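Narrative of activities, Objective 1.

The group set out to show that a structural description can be obtained from nothing but a protein's sequence at a throughput compatible with the screening campaign. Below is one input-output pair from the validation batch, recorded exactly as produced.
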Amino acid sequence: MTATFINSFILFFVTIDTIGNLPFFLSLTEGAKIKKRNQIAIKSIIIAFFIMITFAYLGRYLLEAIQVSLDSLKIAGGVILMLLAIDILFEKRKTRREKRVEEALDEKNFEEIIVFPIAFPFIAGPSALTTIILLIGNYANFPEFQIPVILALVAALIVSLVLMIGANFIIKYIPEQILHATARVMAFILAALATQFIIDGIKASFNI
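Output recorded for this entry:
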């Protein structure tokens, strides 16, 4: 179960991409007092958690309704996560998030930005939602292994919350090069895990 927790935590940490989100979180909450900024961070994390849990357990039934197997989702999810890793490595994701921030800043209301775009899609984005559906579905017949997955999600969100609350300090005192380097290392790990998802899905689909 420890291995499940560690692998799940890495996946959630990378797909949520809190490090990459920090500059955008600061941009969206510019002008807000520290107390208000912290409230925004806490509320957005809580909302993102419930969004992801909902998708984790209802997503499986949706797949069954449209007759999509978990093995197919593994392959598709692996491809999506691989594309995400490539996006992070080449900073394409950063460009898209900058555009979302500009749009949100046009009519900035601190209460409105909690759900969109912070909780969704910055925290509980398509990649993070795909990841939790994959992980929970992977252990559908072993409920006890779903516990470390949920704990890993909670841990990743707590780390995200701590980083968001300490965003001012982090951006001010940690060189941007280190943040970028960390994001790229995690993206490389994500690419390896995505490859494993694809391989597992192909093996199961063709009984290899």
